[in-house]
Amino acid sequence: MKKMKLRPVLNSEYRISGKSPDLTNILPAGNSKLNDGFNKIEFPNECVDHHIIQGPDGVWHMWGCVRATSVGRILYHWEADSLTQSPWRETGEIIRVDRSVGESINEDQEWIQSPYFIFENDTYYMFYGGHGTEIENQCQICLMTSKDCRTWTRYKNEKGQSRLFLGPGQSRDPMLLKVDGLWHMYYAGNEPDDIHKTGFYLRTSQNLIEWSEPELVHFDPRFGSMKWETECPYVIYKKGYYYLFRTRIYTNGETFVFRSENPKDFGVGNATDKFCTVFYAAAPEIIKDVDGKEYISSSHDPKTGNFLAELEWIESEF
């Protein structure tokens, strides 16, 4: 295939998909910790990291992380008959932390986040962050599975944990891409003793359960250095190149895009030569509709909800 340099552009205005939910009748009463561990959050029930997948009955499902609830962070469910439906239906379904399988242990508030879905071998896989573990400054990536995209069962390893692996550092925000038959999982992490050294890591797997040791594939503090400035990696392949989207500032919708011929190298130390564009989105996910049209989702206005817009790729000279 002839290689062609592209860059993403919005082809429509963003429209609301998943509205910020009212959780009054779902979660127990109580005041949430609105600093959310590291920064002040002005509004409760803010929608952040999320992902969309189509179920076997044709219904589209969106599970997203809602932060600053009365218990902490939860996963919340919306559904729609088409991607362009606005807003999507709220089902009232939530998934909370399960500390009995090692999630968010030794933490005052619950912390479950950043779901990502794939469909493989007649099974739906939900990868997500289970946050705190028994090891200080080491977070985890966990797994649930489903046969119908509605009823989810936690995977359990030999220790009875939903955990697939730990770290490095505060590992979170997984996304997966199959490259030449091998699953690549990209996620955010940092050196355990220095949150300023935050980058994106890669692990690979043949079976989605056993994962390789982490490789650092992108780090450049000029595009964001703190852990909350280096978030939500999303990698897609287009006409000979891989494109990495990374969010720096949620509420500004500031996401940087990098282009590389190598899915294991988006620039470490100096990524300037791989920089492609700045894109207006936060925690972006790219979804292809049944007709082949692409959409991008975003959480740039967390207090309002999640959004969806049409996505286009145009030729780029650089």
Protein traits:
mainly beta, Tachylectin-2, Chain A, five-stranded antiparallel beta sheet, five-stranded mixed beta sheet, 23 strands
Give an overview in words.
It is a single chain. The protein is an all-beta fold. The chain has a single domain, classed as Glycosyl hydrolase domain, family 43 (Tachylectin-2, Chain A, 5 Propeller). Helices cover 0% and strands 51% of the residues. It has no helices and 23 strands. The chain has strands at residues 6-10, 15-19, 46-54, 60-67, 72-80, 89-95, 110-111, 113-120, 123-132, 139-146, 153-154, 163-166, 172-179, 182-191, 194-205, 215-218, 231-238, 241-249, 254-260, 275-280, 285-288, 294-298, 305-315. The strands form five sheets. Strands 1, 2, 21, 22 and 23 form a five-stranded antiparallel sheet that branches. Strand 18 (241-249) and strand 19 form a beta hairpin. It is globular, with a radius of gyration of 18 Å. It starts with 5 loop residues before the first strand and ends with a strand.
